[in-house]
Design goal:
By secondary structure, the chain is mostly helical. Helix content is 74%, strand content 0%. It has six helices and no strands. The longest helix has 23 residues, at 3-25. It starts with a helix and ends with a helix.
């Protein structure tokens, strides 16, 4: 296990989770969603580094990271559905034409739930390490 790489990915994932909370407190909902995406991506990369002999691929795809590391088949349907949900908040939130449409779906309640589910999935992945 490449413990320094695992620690690196987990540290920045935790930082991103703190950032998601800060964005929630300031009402910047698009960035809550984006940071939750980043938390899971980086936590999956930590898992990859802890369980695979090679470095994780350069991808933002949660599903690809989970499948390639052997974690996907251990996930339940709710966890897989959550991966699909937050996949929508990576690149798309960066483009102006998508901001308005995505903003409508990102209510305060939805964002709080997204942060809570991100924490739960992140903790579950960490426990698998």
């Amino acid at each position: 296990m490449a413990t320094d790489k695992v620690a690196y990915w987990l540290d920045i994932a935790d930082y991103d989770l703190d950032t998601a909370e800060a964005m929630y407190q300031t009402g910047r909902r698009l960035y809550v969603a984006f940071m939750c995406h980043q938390v899971i991506e980086k936590t999956l990369k930590a898992y990859w580094c802890g369980t695979q002999p090679n470095d994780p691929p350069y991808t933002h795809s949660h599903t690809r990271l989970a499948e390639g590391s052997g974690l996907y088949e251990q996930m339940n349907d709710e966890q897989r559905d959550f991966l699909d949900l937050i996949a929508n908040y990576n690149i798309e939130v960066r483009y102006p034409e998508d901001r308005e449409e995505l903003s409508r779906s990102l209510t305060d309640t939805f964002c709080r739930k997204m942060i809570d589910e991100t924490k739960q999935l992140q903790q579950w992945i960490k426990e698998k390490l």
